[in-house]
Structures
1.
Amino acid sequence: MNRLTDKVALVTGAGRGIGAAIARAFAAEGAAVVLAELDIATAQATAREIAGAIGNAKVLAVQTDVTQSASVQAAVSEAQKAFGPVDVLVNNAGINVFADPLTMTDDDWRRCFAVDLDGVWNGCRAVLPGMIERRAGSIVNIASTHAFQIIPGCFPYPVAKHGVIGLTRALGIEYAPKNVRVNAIAPGYIETQLTHDWWNAQPDPEAARRATLELPPMKRIGKPEEVAMTAVFLASDEAPFINASCITIDGGRTALHHE
Ligand code: NDP
């Protein structure tokens, strides 16, 4: 359990769900972890839980709004003050905005892009100068299978997630000569509050849940810990030649041909 020893990691949206699982897994692998989260109460609760579970864990919760570049810069400064320069950034914070394209409000469009794409760029921009200077760093962007495939009624979330893949590839290529790797993870359905909120918004939540479980070839949805394992791998020195790439975690659903 020392695959991230001596590394400092900052995870956005780490108060709950996939981000919290990544923070836990990073701490278990020896990283110092900053939970950069909009809801400071959930971040502090998760930080306390990690500190209680892992002896000598180095964890810090910092109130952060990824839509505001100054807020993300401040979180990176806090991380540096507490633990040293950030070696690993996970841009995980994200929201679902699912609307009909032509009746969607301008505010919905902006809210989606502000969190799901600007938020990722704000994170990258805050850590890249330091990583470039030290000629070392790993950025992991949490995209989605919506970055490759479109489900009707989910606009404009997939547009922003396609952008996350574009950003990952562009920055991965731009800074490869500086030994900074930028990769993405594309999860399929993962059981978090986000998924429960979506089921609960459907006319028959239980039927929606059952339908979701029927979709993937493995007949189940993923767990946040299953995304976290891949984030550990991409963040670690076990993936030194993986760059500008994306790993899909969906039990094979994206590869399934629907007849
Ligand atoms: P959750 O909603 O459970 O967690 C997201 C976290 O991000 C929340 O703690 C939320 O805080 C925080 N957050 C939201 N807006 C901001 C912001 N502006 N600044 C900082 N933090 C913010 O989501 P998941 O864990 O399910 O999703 C995590 C990522 O994975 C997202 O990028 C999502 O798009 C992606 N994903 C999820 C899938 C799934 O099936 N769950 C599938 C594919 C991709 P608050 O509680 O205050 O809103």
2.
Amino acid sequence: MVAGSKRILVTGALGQIGTVLTLELRRRYGDDRVVASDKRSQVPPELVGGPFVPLDVLDRPALEEAIRDQDIGTVYHLAALLSAVGEQHPQLCWRVNVDGLYNVLEIARQHDLRLFCPSSIAVFGPETPREQTPQETILRPTSMYGVTKVTGERLCEYYATRYGVDVRGIRYPGLISSETPPGGGTTDYAVEIFYEAVRCGRYTCFVRADTVLPMMYMPDAIRATLQLMAAPRSELRHHADFNLAALSFSAGELAAEIRKHLPGFECTFVPDYHQAIADSWPCSIDDTAARAEWGWRPEYDLATMTTDMLAKLAERQRRGTL
Ligand code: NAD
Ligand code: AKB
């Protein structure tokens, strides 16, 4: 939903979610009404059809100027560092994920913006119940990324209740997409495995075969995002911390599912530093609140996602864009 006639800004628009979300927003609202932005400035061909502004979310004056000049009413704030990169650069992770979000919230408060600010299953930690993790539960993450995501959720809640900012968000699980590669997370193996299966029929996975994490196919994630943003505000009891579930499978089960389509596919499992982060996250998620408050239902299961991913990647390989 667009606030009045104002335009939409997507921060971190060149990332895994941002590229696909920007395209879908432009399809719904028109190319000119969706301004993509990112700290990086090499715009991929699929996004050149609409406006792009280079923006570092840590530069609050530049962010505010862009929001004023571009007549922005809604921000999808996707600029962030993910868990694996965040563990390599914890200080930068805090700055981008917390200070960047704080800048966006402050500008939203002053300019009456609507916001989408995603969270993650990384808010959970080793003490959280791992099966069917409840909406309201222990939030004691052990990764810096998780620490920033809990902080972000609490900041959003504060701005929603204290200042009435309309800020919404989802605790996304690991997202699997055939379009833009992931940006340095723990769940990246569940995307890389597809790319490498199609490219060369082999993959070395950086978590154990029995590692089970909650995942979701990108079309479901985009649909969820836009559905939450379109929900009547009066129906929402939660703001920026909705649990969301679709799929849970082990890395070994994913390899076996791919092998049904590509029988020669070989996957070996060589756990590295990602394993400790993966082991601190839940296996499955209870998303009753999202279902009750805004009608969430996933469409893809492991079999339908795998069929679609492999078909899309094979098509990209034929076109020479893989
Ligand atoms: P990504 O890493 O693919 O993209 C993030 C983008 O932010 C990149 O294009 C990067 O250049 C940009 N960026 C980094 N620092 C910036 C800065 N200072 N100013 C402006 N731009 C900057 O991430 P993503 O997967 O698209 O994730 C988007 C959001 O969704 C993040 O908040 C992430 O925590 C959340 N999320 C993603 C997943 C997932 O599986 N992809 C799961 C849970 C939550
Ligand atoms: C990551 O692995 O860091 C992300 C996430 C689940 O937040 N995909």
